[in-house]
């Protein structure tokens, strides 16, 4: 049995970037011809694509975990790693993408819209790309950064021109089956329709779509019955058609009371900001099942009251097809007017994105800890640089210290009151913890140590004059004691 799913949570993991390569070119008569390590490949992205051929989120309900390909590692001879494979996920047109906290990411309302919801990680640079006139043979490369990993929520809101609204078993599914090629499930019990059905109607030169959505009962705006499952799919429609059952046998129900209940629920439902409230949209009345004699009499009785309220009323029968042509052309007139209004609306303001030069690349936040203050460095660049650093390579660690110093991290730490030996954390959460030593200054380009080492990280300190004097005196005292012991042994031998 086909199941309709209109909300789902995706667990995504984009591809990791490949590591750069450390390599030195070797040729005949040129044992060290320079670095030739290639760059790592970028990780694959996860992209959402609005596809008109996709009508449900069912496939993501059964398999919500999706991941993209990792980038390949760089190689010698300046060979870059392969790019990770992107993953494209087709979603229905009208899908709203939000975070788990409900923050809007994108609204995919146009066919073909694409959203990179999970960007892949960057590939690391090889030592050939890191070489410059001062650092001619780097003994390190940058690591690839991890891709985005997290959860996003997909919510489907049907995109149609006209919505058929009404009580369960009012004949909405029969109406859409009679005027279009849609074949929804039709039965003689309430809540037969459990998911929206779309149909395309041709009325003269105008083609439009209508949506048959789940039935509405009193209290739906508070979640009763299918509740919000119904109302969510009415948001996108430009016009409403109230399908009223004139042949119902339930006590206390009639077309006028049904309409009042429906209007109350539509008025209680809050639409997103910027959209027209549901009750202010064009509305038509369809008095259904007039093929039944009692229903035809009731329709004639209530027609005058409905017209006095300002509604256009149509008496229809999905069995005998009475009144369907008039209703479809009336819906086409409303759709044509709404499309003209949309076409004449002013174009959206073009947003110009300019570089934010005044915004700092990082921030330093002072946090209280059990053993003193902790200085946390937050920012896209410092966090990415730490991810790219191989902490098993001293030269790579020195290169990281150079980058942080040039960015102004040390000056900012001094400004907020950090002292040598203070605990510094780069990144949110646990992050990377350092014991800050401001003596690590930017001078990696002038180092002459072997590749892969950084003398600045050695624990060797220069002796002071006092220490050298004390060591000299200790050495002289040791020599004097040795001479005295030798002289004492010589005197004993003479005796």
TrEMBL record:
Instruction: Give the domain of life.
Output: Bacteria
Q: Does the keyword tRNA processing apply?
A: no
A GO BP entry:
ribosome biogenesis
Tell me its EC number(s), please.
3.6.5.-
Q: Which residues bind GTP?
A: 166-173, 191-195, 212-215, 288-291, 317-319
Molecular function per GO: GTP binding; GTPase activity; magnesium ion binding
Q: Cross-referenced InterPro entries, in alphabetical order?
A: G_OBG, GTP-bd, GTP-bd_Obg/CgtA, GTP-bd_prot_GTP1/OBG_C_sf, GTP1-OBG_CS, GTP1_OBG_dom, GTP1_OBG_dom_sf, OBG_GTPase
Among the Pfam families in the record, one is GTP1_OBG
Q: Which GO terms describe its cellular component?
A: cytoplasm
Localization recorded for this chain is: Cytoplasm
**Keywords linked to the UniProt accession:** Cytoplasm, GTP-binding, Hydrolase, Magnesium, Metal-binding, Nucleotide-binding
Q: Where is this region: Disordered?
A: 61-89
Question: Ranges for the OBG-type G domain?
Answer: 160-336
Q: What are the residue boundaries of the Obg domain, all occurrences included? A: 2-159
**What's the cofactor?**
Mg(2+)
The positions annotated for binding Mg(2+) are 173, 193
OCT domain location is: 354-438
What is its EC class?
A: hydrolase
Q: What does this protein do?
A: An essential GTPase which binds GTP, GDP and possibly (p)ppGpp with moderate affinity, with high nucleotide exchange rates and a fairly low GTP hydrolysis rate. Plays a role in control of the cell cycle, stress response, ribosome biogenesis and in those bacteria that undergo differentiation, in morphogenesis control.
- What PANTHER family would the database entry show? DEVELOPMENTALLY REGULATED GTP-BINDING PROTEIN-RELATED, MITOCHONDRIAL RIBOSOME-ASSOCIATED GTPASE 2
Family, per entry: Belongs to the TRAFAC class OBG-HflX-like GTPase superfamily. OBG GTPase family.
Q: How does it assemble?
A: Monomer.
NCBIfam families linked? Obg_CgtA, Obg_CgtA_exten, PRK12296.1, PRK12297.1, PRK12299.1
Q: What is this protein called?
A: GTPase Obg
What is the scientific name of the source organism? Answer: Microbacterium ginsengisoli
Q: What is the lineage of its organism?
A: Bacteria, Bacillati, Actinomycetota, Actinomycetes, Micrococcales
């Amino acid at each position: 049995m086909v199941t309709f799913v209109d909300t789902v949570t995706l667990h995504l993991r984009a591809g990791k970037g490949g590591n750069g390569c450390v390599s030195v070119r070797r040729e005949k008569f040129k044992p060290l011809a320079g670095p030739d390590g290639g760059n790592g490949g970028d990780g694959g992205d996860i992209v959402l694509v609005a596809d008109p051929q996709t009508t449900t989120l069912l496939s993501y309900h059964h398999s919500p975990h999706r991941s993209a390909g990792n980038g390949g590692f760089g190689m010698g001879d300046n060979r870059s790693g392969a790019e990770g494979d992107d993953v494209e996920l087709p979603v229905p047109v009208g899908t709203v993408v939000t975070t788990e906290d409900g923050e809007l990411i994108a609204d995919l309302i146009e066919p073909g819209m694409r959203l990179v919801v999970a960007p892949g990680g960057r590939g690391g640079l090889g030592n050939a790309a890191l070489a410059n006139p001062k650092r001619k043979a780097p003994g390190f490369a940058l690591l690839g950064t991890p891709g985005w990993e997290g959860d996003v929520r997909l919510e489907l809101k049907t995109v149609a021109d006209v919505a058929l609204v009404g009580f369960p078993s009012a004949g909405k599914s029969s109406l859409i089956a009679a005027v279009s090629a849609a074949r929804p499930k039709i039965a003689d019990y309430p809540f037969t329709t459990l998911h929206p059905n779309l149909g395309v109607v041709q009325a003269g030169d105008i083609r439009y779509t209508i949506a048959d959505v789940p039935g509405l009962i009193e209290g739906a705006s508070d979640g009763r019955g299918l509740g919000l499952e119904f109302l969510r799919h009415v948001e996108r429609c430009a016009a409403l058609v109230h399908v009223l059952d004139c042949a119902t046998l339930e006590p206390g129900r009639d077309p006028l009371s049904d309409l009042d209940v429906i209007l109350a629920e539509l008025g209680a439902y809050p639409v997103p900001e910027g959209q027209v409230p549901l009750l202010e949209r064009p509305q038509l009345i369809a008095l259904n099942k007039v093929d039944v004699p009692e229903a035809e009499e009731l329709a004639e009785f209530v027609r005058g009251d409905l017209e006095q309220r300002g509604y256009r009323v149509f008496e229809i029968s999905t069995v005998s097809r009475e009144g369907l042509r008039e209703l479809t052309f009336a819906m086409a007139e409303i759709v044509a007017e709404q499309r003209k209004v949309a076409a004449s609306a002013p174009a959206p303001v073009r947003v110009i994105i300019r570089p934010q030069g005044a915004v700092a690349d990082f921030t330093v936040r002072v946090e209280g800890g059990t053993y003193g203050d902790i200085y946390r460095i937050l920012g896209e660049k410092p966090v990415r640089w730490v991810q790219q650093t191989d902490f098993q390579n001293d030269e790579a660690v020195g290169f990281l210290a150079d980058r942080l110093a040039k960015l102004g991290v040390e000056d900012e730490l001094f400004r907020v009151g950090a002292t040598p030996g203070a605990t510094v954390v780069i990144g949110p959460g646990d992050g990377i913890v350092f014991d800050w030593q401001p003596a690590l200054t930017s001078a990696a380009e002038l180092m002459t140590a072997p590749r892969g080492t950084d003398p600045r990280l050695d624990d060797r300190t220069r002796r002071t004059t006092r220490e050298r004097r004390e060591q000299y005196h200790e050495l002289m005292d040791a020599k004097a004691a040795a001479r005295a012991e030798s002289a004492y042994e010589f005197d004993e031998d003479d005796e």
